[in-house]
Amino acid sequence: MLDFGCGSGILAIAALLLGAAKATGLDIDPQALTASRDNAAANGVVERLSVALPPNEGSYTKGALPLVVANILAGPLIALAPRSSASVAPEGRLLLSGILEAQAASVASAYEPWIEFAPIARQDGWVMLEGTRRDGV
């Protein structure tokens, strides 16, 4: 699984604790990578978590991952739509959170060419978008 904008590593660590074989966390902040490694060590999963600064466009693994998650602001989610969508395997899942309800349509629209979203999950003005990579794109 891949966690875009891993921050403290909580999503990647949770996936590992729930059975993911391995996880990768990407973040533009080197401090986030350190925090993710430290938190993975504290949770006994450091050997299955790799963290890195985002690679350049040409080095993304295309369509290889069954799960890609991101809990970041709407602007970066929209900007990352082509890259994060391309990382999801055909029929793989994409989970996006940290989105204000008023921004959900804009974020979903940015992913529309690649991802088919389930109905939006809402709570207290925030939303989570959950979708599946369309076959053949």
Question: Could you walk me through the main structural features you see in this protein, from its secondary elements to its overall organization?
Answer:
By secondary structure, this protein is of the alpha/beta class. The chain has a single domain (2-133), classed as Rossmann fold. It has 5 helices and 8 strands. Strands 1, 2, 3, 4, 5, 6, 7 and 8 form an 8-stranded mixed beta sheet that branches. The longest helix is centred in the N-terminal third of the chain and has 13 residues, at 30-42. The radius of gyration is 14 Å and the shape is globular.
Domain module count: 1
Number of helical segments?
5
CA(first)-CA(last) distance: 20 Å
Looking at CATH, the homologous superfamily is Vaccinia Virus protein VP39
What is the CATH first-level class name?
Alpha Beta
Q: What is the strand tally?
A: 8
What proportion of the residues is helical, as a percent range?
Answer: 25-40%
Rounded average pLDDT: 92
User: Which class of secondary structure composition applies to the elements?
Assistant: alpha/beta
Low-confidence stretches: none
- Corresponding CATH architecture: 3-Layer(aba) Sandwich
CATH topology call: Rossmann fold
User: DSSP strand (E) fraction?
Assistant: 25-35%
How many strands, what sense, and barrel or not for the largest sheet?
8 strands, mixed
What is the radius of gyration computed over CA atoms, rounded to a whole number of angstroms? 14 Å
- The best one-word shape is globular
The secondary-structure element order is: EHEHEEHHEHEEE
